[in-house]
Amino acid sequence: MRRSRKVKILATLGPASDDAATIRRLFEAGADVFRINMSHADHDTMRRLVGVIRGIEAEAERPIGILADLQGPKLRVGKFAKGAVELKPGQIFTLDDDPAPGTTKRVNLPHPEILRSVRPGERLLIDDGKLQLRCEETDGASLRCVVVSGTKISDRKGVSLPDTDLPVGALTEKDRRDLDAALAAGVDWIALSFIQRPEDLAEARKVARGRALLMAKIEKPQAVLRLPEIIELSDALMVARGDLGVEMPIEAVPGIQKQITRACRRAGKPVVVATQMLESMISAPVPTRAEVSDVSIAVFEGADAIMLSAESAAGQYPVEAVAMMNRIAVQVERDPTYPSIINAQRTEPEATSADAISLASRQIAETLKLSAIVTYTSSGATGLRAARERPLLPIVALSPVVETARRLSLVWGTHCVVSEDAHDSEDMVDRACRIAFREGFAAPGERVIITAGVPFGTPGATNMLRIAYVGSDGQGGV
């Protein structure tokens, strides 16, 4: 099951795609990682989906990544006496701690942390920004606001606070329960929603204890302002353009997407571009030309993965959406301008042996026109450094740890294979050449470049580089 592209595809599972047959078709169409949205999936559903994916993984003999996306703090207004009310721009409307049904004058906001935190002049966006309020006065128990734009508000609509730094962590009680269940089920990645500050990652990191990697979703202005710190403490980032486009000017989102993608590439951290990539395919068998262009921009930018949300979770054409995204990515990576764009964004390697070896392996492989880079990686760090270089040839990542291989399935350009670690130098060469041959990356007579660490089996000790020929029987020779 070799992919003919380097960017990865992340597909969300949901009512349209939660049976084994459809998940298998999604994988065959191009999905490399599956997302389980804990805003909608209960624990039994999540465990069932993990079991189905692991079954498909065993059949395909190729690692598949699983991402559990935590809901995060969902802030909502209360209910109205008549379900909804009409408002007018310029009128005063109050949000308060009174649980009584809402009227045209006020509504309950059952979040005391908001009532205490919002300051005069700060905005409150209701229902994905369809209604915009500006706080005029606050007393800790109510927010007296003026209606800036919008004319309607109804029961349980969401509240966004683009100007307010809430003094609460990113994990709710529901998130803590979901996190424990997801870790027990053996997911590979945990996505944290509505991150505001680096400290928001600390609690999840303490609970995870290395059992899964953490992905910070960037969807709030406060997170954009502290992006370098968040990147440093995260294992990966997601450009969550839906909420980001609500809380920030929508015209600023494309530039922020590029900033985040490039910052992650410099740091060698995976980055996922998400939300509305093929939105029209929820109800149509083909996307718009603008959506195709949107996907292609993320691929040209060198994002590690591109994600489908409702398109694959609840749409009428989930498999077709994955297949279309796959076709777009393959075509972009074949475009003659693609290598020069990817090369122009490379940054200087860090002063580590792993970075130096990764840089050297890419330069040698491209200069000698070798067939593949084969890297031995136990923790996954060497695979990440190899991908940071964005080589034009495939990266075959060999790991004795199945969890590592699954996590690397999200990473740009890596074809992951679970294999025993090398026993000695001869075994290192033979194993690398044999797998490159078996997986279709190198033919007899072609050469591959191999990176590994001595002593063998020592995580983080990448310090050796070899060039080897693939023999007629797939065995290697230096």
Quick overview:
By secondary structure, the protein is an alpha/beta fold. Helix content is 36%, strand content 23%. The chain folds into 3 domains: 8-72 and 170-337, TIM Barrel (Alpha-Beta Barrel), CATH 3.20.20.60; 84-160, M1 Pyruvate Kinase, Domain 3, CATH 2.40.33; 353-477, Pyruvate kinase, C-terminal domain (Pyruvate Kinase, Chain: A, domain 1, 3-Layer(aba) Sandwich), CATH 3.40.1380.
Provide structural commentary.
The protein is an alpha/beta fold. It folds into three domains: 8-72 and 170-337, Alpha-Beta Barrel (TIM Barrel), CATH 3.20.20; 84-160, PK beta-barrel domain-like (M1 Pyruvate Kinase, Domain 3, Beta Barrel); 353-477, Pyruvate kinase, C-terminal domain (Pyruvate Kinase, Chain: A, domain 1), CATH 3.40.1380. Helix content is 36%, strand content 23%. It has 17 helices and 22 strands. The protein has helices at 20-29, 43-60, 112-117, 173-185, 202-208, 221-225, 227-233, 241-247, 253-267, 289-301, 310-313, 318-334, 338-344, 353-367, 381-388, 402-408, 425-438, and strands at residues 8-13, 33-37, 65-69, 84-86, 92-96, 106-108, 123-126, 131-138, 142-149, 152-154, 159-160, 189-192, 213-218, 236-240, 271-274, 305-308, 372-376, 395-399, 414-418, 447-453, 462-470, 476-477. The chain has an eight-stranded parallel β-barrel with strand order 1-2-3-12-13-14-15-16, surrounded by eight helices. Strands 6-5-9-8-7-11 form a six-stranded mixed beta sheet, with no helix packed on it. Strands 19-18-17-20-21-22 form a six-stranded mixed beta sheet. Strand 17, helix 15 and strand 18 form a beta-alpha-beta unit. Helix 1 crosses helix 2 (43-60), helix 2 (43-60) packs parallel to helix 4 (173-185) and helix 7 (227-233) packs across helix 9. It is elongated and about 80 Å long. It starts with 7 loop residues before the first strand and ends with a strand.
